[in-house]
Amino acid sequence: MNAMFRVIIIGFFIATVTITWAQEKIVFQPEQMQKDLTKFKNTLIKTHPGIYEYQTSEEFEQFMNQLILETSKPLEGKEFHNIVLRLIAKIHDGHTGVYPIGKLGETFKKHKHLPFQVFIKNQRIYIVRNLSTKEIPDGSEIISIDNVLSNEVVSKMLQHYSADGLTTSGMEHYLGVSYLSFSRTYPIVYDTKSTYEITYKDYVTRQIKTKTVASISKENYLKTELEKYGANSNKFKEKAFDFRINENEKYAYLQITRFFKDSFQEPESTYPDFYKQCFKEIEEKNIKNLIIDLRDNDGGKHSNAAHLLRYFVKETFTPTNEVSTKGNDEYYLKFNDGDTLYLNTSFGLKQKLNGDYRVTNFDYLTELNVFKPIDKYHYDGKIIVLIDGGASSAGGSGPGILQEYTDAIFVGSETFGTAGISNGVNKIYVLGDETGLVLYIPTMHSDISINKHLKRRGVLPDYEISNTIHDIINKRDVIMEFALKKLLPTTHKNH
Question: What percent helix, strand, coil does the chain show, rounded to 5?
Fold first, then answer.
């Protein structure tokens, strides 16, 4: 699956119906919210490629009826936004989302953050970076926030945000990184407050303590983090890939943080050229152990994962069987506020017997082409692939085809992304007529060439290994340590 975001400039939203203002709070009336909910519902049904992947049409209808009931009284803008968040989370597709614009969007920009970067595992919340003014040791476990227990907090967060498919570990991982950080999303799901009461288990003394911490602006959050920790924790890494060889212990390490280097428009040769240099050096130095690190891979072009696979296989393969969409340009005009998607000319759409359309022009979606094995510098040694809940979009489908076509050993935890629903190559943006909320909806589905029974959840490891809070605080990479000590030849045992 791909992760390119189509940029659309949406004009400033001006409400033409009654909106009540009180202390910078927007209040929507039932008819406003229900009108937009109905528009969102109908658009999702008619355009989303995976609307019924994890729910039946009857279940979706019942859920929508419940949301309509919840909007039968006036609600603040943030409350309605959270109802729509739950609607999106119910689809379990990481390429689908909602954001506010106009007046409502401006109020969201003023929201302050919880002053912690956290690590969440098994519905437990740990402080990784303390950006408050209170002396709370890193590693401390948050027991409750404003008297709500941590497991209840995480459970509620997962009702509003979801990974691809039904996995929860991937979403727990994402709440600890910059894209959907708990520090930012907690005040959205819960109350936006100036202070929060935190009950925690002190990492040093093991005592249970309660302190009141002040919320923090985004600017001060980043500034404090930089001053206190020397760097900001940004999931999007500056380097798309890295490679090195440990000649003493005879293994190569290939890290890929995303499957495009700078942009989707970069030359098709960018990754193939990089891989060629890597495997040339591997062959010259007679390396027979390769570790491929795909943890926190943000996605990109599935074809760039396929180019890597070419060095391991002996037969031709097609990484993606088909890319399809529910309609052509004319079909989507009525949903995309009259803005054409250029699907016909860009992708050569041809209608299928079921009424959907398939892509026949492979110039842009090169993952649909047949890929041949690469004989020169072909690698036939041991392959170890590191994965985690931060691997999304093509970061999920990429390891999927590696697992399908090779005997690589996978270590870590289930990926956020699956090979089962949508790709992010093209989206429509649907503006609520009354509330200033915008849905973005993927229009295309990639049928990745892996076993059909493995498409509805993330890639699963052969060895389930993940960090604990103690590992994080002590800067240990237990996944990498396991690969080196347990999976490489005996000469690595005392590494």
Answer: 30, 25, 45
Q: Is 74 exposed, middle or buried (0-12, 13-18, 19+ CB in 10 A)?
A: middle
User: Please, which pLDDT band fits residue 4 given cuts at 50, 70 and 90?
Assistant: very low
| 32 or 23: which leads in pLDDT | 32
How many Cβ atoms sit within 10 Å of the Cβ of residue 276? 16
Show Cβ contacts of residue 12 under 8 Å, excluding neighbours closer than 6 positions. Answer: 101, 102
Q: At what angle do helices 77-89 and 30-47 cross, to 10 degrees?
A: 20
- Please list, residue by residue across 224-248, b when 16 or more beta carbons sit within 10 angstroms of its beta carbon and e when fewer do: bbeeeeeeeeebeeeebbebebeee
Which H/E stretch holds residue 70? helix 57-70
What is the token pair recorded at 299?
A: 């996605």
What pLDDT was estimated at residue 421? 72
Tell whether the model's pLDDT for residue 10 goes beyond 60.
no
pLDDT tens-digit series, residues 217-246: 999 999 999 999 999 988 888 899 999 999
Q: What is the mean pLDDT of residues 336-365?
A: 91
What is the 3-class SS of 296-318, one letter each residue? CCCCECHHHHHHHHCCCCCCCEC
> For residue 143, how far is the Cα from the chain centroid?
27
Task: Locate 411 and state its tokens.
Answer: 């270590």
Look at residue 16 and tell me whether its pLDDT is greater than 60.
no
pTM value is 0.92
First and final C-alpha spacing in the chain: 37
Q: What is the average per-residue pLDDT within 374-378?
A: 96
Q: Are 76 and 25 in contact (CB under 8 A)?
A: yes
pLDDT tens-place string over residues 325-339: 999 999 999 898 778
Mean pLDDT of 151-155: 98
Q: What 3-state class would DSSP assign to 493?
A: coil
Distance of CA 321 to the CA centre of its chain: 23
Question: 6-15 in b/e burial notation, b at 16+ Cβ within 10 A?
Answer: eeeeeeebeb
Residue 99 CB-density burial (10 A; 0-12 exposed, 13-18 middle, 19+ buried): middle
Beta strands in 202-343 (DSSP E): 208-214, 241-246, 251-256, 289-293, 320-325
Separation between Cα atoms, residue 255 and residue 260, nearest integer Å: 13
DSSP string, 462-478: SEE----HHHHHTT--H
Q: How far is CA 479 from CA 59, 388, 397, 461, in A?
A: 39, 10, 21, 11
Mean pLDDT of 463-476: 97
What is the model's pLDDT at position 18?
37
